[in-house]
Specification:
heterodimer, A: about 240 residues, mainly alpha, Four Helix Bundle (Hemerythrin (Met), subunit A), B: about 220 residues, 9 helices, about 85% helix, about 0% strand
C-alpha cells in the first residue's frame, strides 16, 4: 500500500467518492460554525468596532490563496517527475479555486481597509505581492486553456507553476521581511509573544480549518470532473476512430 | 554559442529584423506622456523615473515575439535543439542577443528622454545604471515567457499576461533606484535587489525556458 496507488484514476475515483461526503460535511460544519461563532458570539473590538470580524474571511482566504499555489507546485512536480495524470489534473482543478480565494482575500482586505486605513488599496509590498499572485493564477489558467494537447499543457503549466512559486513564497512571507507599509505583521504565530486575543483566535482557527476543508472538497470535486471529462474525450475519439 | 549570438545580432540588424523598432516605441511612449499628462515641469520630473522604466519594459515586451518565432517558422530551432550546444545555452545566447539589440539602445537613449521629461539632475547616472543592471532581467524573463507560448499560433497576448507580472519586481526596484537617486536619497538597497533579481533570473530561467522549448518541440 503506497500513496502512488492513488495515481490510478480508478482507485482515485473510488476513494474520493467515499471521502467526499465526509470532507464536505466537515467543511460545512467548521466553516458555518466558525463564521457564526466569529460573527455573532465574539465582542466588537474597542477601536475597530465590528469591522474586526472581516478577519474571519480575510485571513483564511489569504492563507488558502497562497497554500493553493504550493499544493499546485507539489502536484506539478509529481507530474513532471512521475507522469501521473491525476496529479496534473489536480493542479489544473486547484487553480480557479486558488484564484477565487486570492480574490476573496483582496476584496475583503479592501472592504476592511476603506474604513480603517481610509483607502481601498495601498501599494504596500504585501498587497502588491498578493495582487501579482492573482495575476499568476490568471496566466496559469489561461495557459491551460490555450494549449490544445493536454500533456503539453500540463508540462508547460508545471514549469510556469515552479517559476511562479517564487511569487507565491514572496506573498506568503512578505509579512515577515518587509516591515514598512500599512498591512499589519504576523499575529497568529505559535511562537510569538504578542498575538491576536484568544477571543478572536479560536473562531479564526475554526474558519481556517473550514476554508482548508472547503478547498479540499472543491479540488476533489473538480479533479473528479476533469477525470470524467478526460474519459469522455477518450471515448469520443475512440468512437471516431471506429466509425 | 558565440556563433549563434553573432548570427542573431546580424539577423536583427539587417533589414526586416525589426532592429530599432523597440527604440522607436520607447521614444514615442516618452513623447506621448507629457502630451497626456500636461507640460507641468514639476509633475513631469516626479513621474519621469516611472515613465521611463514602464516605457523600457513595454518596448522590451513588444520585441519579444521575435525571439523564437522566426526560428520556429523556418525550423532552425529544431536544428538548434539537436545541436551539441545545450538548449539552455541557446536560450542564454538568444536572450543576450535580444538584450544587445533591444535593451542596450534603451539604456543609451534613456538620458536624452530623461532630459525631455525634466528628470532631476542627480537622477541621470542612476537611470543609466539601473537600466543597465535591470534590462538583462527583462530579456531573460521574456525569453522564458516566449518559450512557454512558442507553440501557439496567437500567443502574443497570453505571453504578455505571463511576462508582465514577472516584470513587476524589476520595475519596482528599477524605478525606485532612479527616484531615490534623483532625490539624493540612499538607494543602495534597491540597487542590490535589482542586481539580485537580474542575476537570479540569468542563472535559473534559461533552464526553465529550455524545458518549455523541449516540451513545445515534442
Amino acid at each position: 500500500m503506497s500513496i502512488w496507488e492513488y495515481a490510478n484514476p480508478k482507485k482515485f475515483m473510488e476513494t474520493s467518492a467515499r471521502l467526499l461526503p465526509w470532507v464536505t460535511g466537515f467543511a460545512m460544519v467548521s466553516l458555518l460554525g466558525g463564521l457564526f461563532w466569529g460573527f455573532f458570539l465574539t465582542p466588537d473590538d474597542f477601536r475597530q468596532g465590528s469591522t474586526v470580524k472581516i478577519i474571519y474571511l480575510h485571513v483564511p482566504a489569504a492563507i488558502m490563496g497562497t497554500s493553493a499555489w504550493f499544493m499546485m507546485l507539489v502536484t506539478s512536480l509529481i507530474w513532471l517527475i512521475r507522469r501521473h495524470h491525476v496529479s496534473a489534473l489536480a493542479a489544473k482543478a486547484a487553480a480557479p479555486v486558488g484564484l477565487t480565494f486570492t480574490l476573496i482575500g483582496l476584496v475583503t482586505g479592501a472592504i476592511w481597509g476603506q474604513p480603517m486605513w481610509g483607502t481601498w488599496w495601498a501599494w504596500d509590498p504585501r498587497l502588491t505581492a498578493f495582487l501579482i499572485l492573482g495575476l499568476f493564477y490568471l496566466g496559469y489558467i489561461a495557459l491551460w486553456a490555450a494549449v490544445d494537447d493536454p500533456d503539453t499543457a500540463a508540462d508547460l503549466t508545471s514549469v510556469l507553476c515552479i517559476v511562479g512559486s517564487v511569487f507565491a513564497f514572496l506573498s506568503r512571507y512578505a509579512i515577515l521581511f518587509w516591515n514598512q507599509g500599512l498591512h499589519q505583521g504576523a499575529s497568529l504565530s505559535l511562537d510569538a509573544e504578542e498575538n491576536v486575543s484568544d477571543v478572536y483566535a479560536w473562531p479564526l482557527w475554526t474558519c481556517i480549518a473550514g476554508f482548508l476543508l472547503l478547498f479540499v472538497t472543491l479540488v476533489l470535486l473538480r479533479t473528479r470532473t476533469e477525470i470524467r471529462a478526460r474519459r469522455m474525450a477518450a471515448l469520443l475519439s475512440r468512437e471516431r476512430m471506429a466509425g | 554559442m558565440r556563433a549563434l549570438f553573432l548570427r542573431d545580432l546580424a539577423l536583427a540588424i539587417r533589414a526586416g529584423g525589426g532592429f530599432g523598432l523597440g527604440l522607436a516605441f520607447f521614444l514615442l511612449v516618452a513623447v506621448l506622456m507629457p502630451l497626456g499628462v500636461g507640460p507641468d515641469q514639476g509633475v513631469l520630473g516626479r513621474i519621469a523615473p516611472g515613465v521611463l522604466w514602464v516605457g523600457a519594459l513595454l518596448a522590451c515586451l513588444l520585441s519579444l515575439d521575435r525571439l523564437f518565432a522566426l526560428d520556429v517558422e523556418d525550423g532552425s530551432l529544431d536544428l538548434l535543439a539537436t545541436a551539441p550546444l545545450p538548449l539552455e545555452g541557446v536560450v542564454a545566447a538568444k536572450a543576450l542577443a535580444h538584450w544587445v539589440v533591444t535593451g542596450l539602445p534603451l539604456v543609451l537613449a534613456a538620458p536624452v528622454l530623461g532630459l525631455e521629461l525634466n528628470l532631476a539632475p542627480g537622477g541621470y547616472a542612476w537611470l543609466v545604471v539601473s537600466l543597465l543592471v535591470g534590462t538583462p532581467a527583462l530579456s531573460v524573463i521574456g525569453a522564458f515567457g516566449t518559450a512557454l507560448t512558442v507553440g501557439l499560433k496567437r500567443g502574443g497576448l497570453l505571453m504578455s499576461l505571463l511576462v508582465l507580472p514577472m516584470y513587476v519586481p524589476t520595475l519596482i526596484f528599477g524605478a525606485e533606484v532612479v527616484r531615490r537617486g534623483a532625490a539624493g536619497l540612499e538607494f543602495g538597497g534597491a540597487l542590490v535587489f535589482l542586481a539580485a533579481i537580474t542575476l537570479g533570473a540569468l542563472a535559473l530561467l534559461p533552464f526553465a525556458a529550455a524545458a518549455a522549448i523541449r516540451v513545445n518541440l515534442r
